[in-house]
Amino acid sequence: MIYYSFIYVALSCLILSKLSMNVIKLRRQGKISFGDDGDRVLMRRIRAQGNFIEYTPIFLLSLIAIEWLAIENIPYYFLYINIVGSLFIIGRILHALSLYEKKIMHRKTGMIITFVTLRFNGLILLILIFYKIFF
Fold first, then answer.
1. pLDDT for 1 beyond 80
2. Which of 31, 48, 86, 119 could link 99 by a cystine bridge, Cβ 3.0 to 4.6 Å?
3. Are 83 and 60 in contact (CB under 8 A)?
4. Tell me, what's the pLDDT at 2?
5. By the 8 A CB rule, do 42 and 26 touch?
6. Of 75, 66, 78, 68, which Cα lies nearest the Cα of 125?
7. Residues 14, 8, 84, 117: is their CA dihedral positive or negative?
8. What is the set of domains in the chain, with CATH numbers?
9. Average pLDDT, whole number, for the chain?
10. Alpha-carbon span 96 to 108, nearest angstrom
């Protein structure tokens, strides 16, 4: 049995490792072991990493839960998993890029995509839970 949501877990691991390596690289260059020491570029990179960490776990958990609940009863569930998973990844990449490049439009788009996918997952998960309870 294939769990499509694991694709987005794997992609998230790669993105987080890249964001983390960028923070480490800049810390080493500036010899900064804690905080940002007033370095605005480092501060933006720390926030890009932190923001990714804040939203990604709950999204992935909800995506896995949706797949787990839908796999037996809902035809074409994999389309939802892949569309929403892809959108979330795109949103997180846009948001991270906005902090690196100071482009507010990417940041707004990234956050809108993130919030829409989180809300969709919350609603779909509730629907699936009630479906499992009552049907």
1. no
2. 48
3. no
4. 75
5. yes
6. 66
7. negative
8. 5-134 (1.20.120.550)
9. 94
10. 11
